[in-house]
Amino acid sequence: MRNGVATLAAFTIVLLLSSCSGGDDRETVLVMAASSLTDAFIEIETAFEAANPEIDVQLNLAGSASLLEQIVQGAPADVFASANASTMQAVVDAGAANTSTPFAGNTLQIAVPLGNPANVSDIADLADPDLLVGLCGEQVPCGQFARQALDQAGVVASIDTNEGDVRALVTKLEAGELDAGIVYATDVIASPEIEGIALPANIDVAITYPIAVLTDSPNPDLARTFFDFVLSARGQALLADAGFIAP
Q1: How many domains, in total, are found in the chain?
Q2: 52 shares a domain with 173
Q3: In DSSP terms, which residues pair with 55 in a beta bridge?
Q4: How many C-beta neighbours within 10 Å does residue 88 have?
Q5: Torsion angles phi and psi, residue 97, rounded to 5
C-alpha cells in the first residue's frame, strides 16, 4: 500500500510540475518597439495573440536609439518599430532590415503635471530659468523632435534634465519633479497624471513611425504575420484608440 501511495504522490507531483511549467508550446515572435508605443503595442499584443493563439508576442520596449544599438550588436529580434525614420534608416543601412513601412504618426505637446502648478501656458515659457524643464535626450527621437519644435518657435529652453526615453520624462512629470516638458500627444492621452498644452499652430514637426521585419529574424513568417497585423484595420484602430494618427 505504501508503494501505491508513493507512486500516486510522485505522479501528482509530476502533474503539478507540468502545470506550473505552463506547457506553453506556442511559437514566439520577438518585437522591439519604441517606448512611446508601449501602451498601444501592449493592446496590439493582446489582440494579436487572441487572433493567433499559437503565437506568443514578446515585447522589448525602449528608446529607439537603444533598440538600434541592440539590433546592430546582433540581439535576436523579429520586428522593429521605430519612433522615427532616421533610426530605421540606420537599421537598413546596417543591413539589419531590407525595407520599412510607415504605420503611424504622432504630434507633440507641452506636458505639465496635473493642475499645471507652474502656470505654463506656451512654449516660450520653457525658456524661463525658474521653471524645471525636461526634454528627452538629443540621441532619441522625442528629444530630436522637441528641439525641432523649439527651433521653429525661436525658443532656447532652459533644460534641467535630458531623459533617455519619453517614458522616463513622463514619469518625472507625473511625480511633479518637473514643471514642464515636451512629449508625444499619445503620452498625454495615456497618463491621467499629466495634462497637455498645444504647440503654436505654426510649428510643424513631422513624426512618422516605421516598422520592419528584420533580416536576421529567427521566425520570418511569424514576423510577417505580426507586421501585417499592425498594418491591418484592427491594428490601425488600436493605434488610433491610443491617439496615434495616420502616417
Answers
A1: 2
A2: no
A3: 27
A4: 26
A5: -150, 150
- Sign of the CA dihedral with 99 first, then 213, 74, and 210 last: positive
Exposed e or buried b for every residue in 32-46, given b needs 16+ CB within 10 A? bbbbbbbbbbbbbbe
CA-closest candidate to residue 145, choices 64, 205, 217, 76? 205
- List the grid coordinates of 41: 503595442
Same-domain pairing of 31 and 153: no
Q: What are the grid coordinates assigned to 100, written together?
A: 520599412
Q: How confident is the model at residue 25 (pLDDT cuts 50, 70, 90)?
A: confident
The residue written with cell numbers 506568443 in the block is 56
pLDDT digits (tens, 9 = 90+) for 57-107: 999 999 999 999 999 999 999 999 999 999 999 999 999 999 999 999 999
221 in any annotated domain: yes
Q: Domain limits at 130?
A: 108-198
Instruction: State the CATH number of the domain containing residue 236.
Output: 3.40.190.10
Strands (E), 92-187: 101-106, 108-113, 133-136, 159-163, 180-184
- Shared domain for 190 and 213, answered yes or no, is no
Residue 142 has a pLDDT of 95
Q: Using an 8 Å Cβ cutoff, are 142 and 150 in contact?
A: no
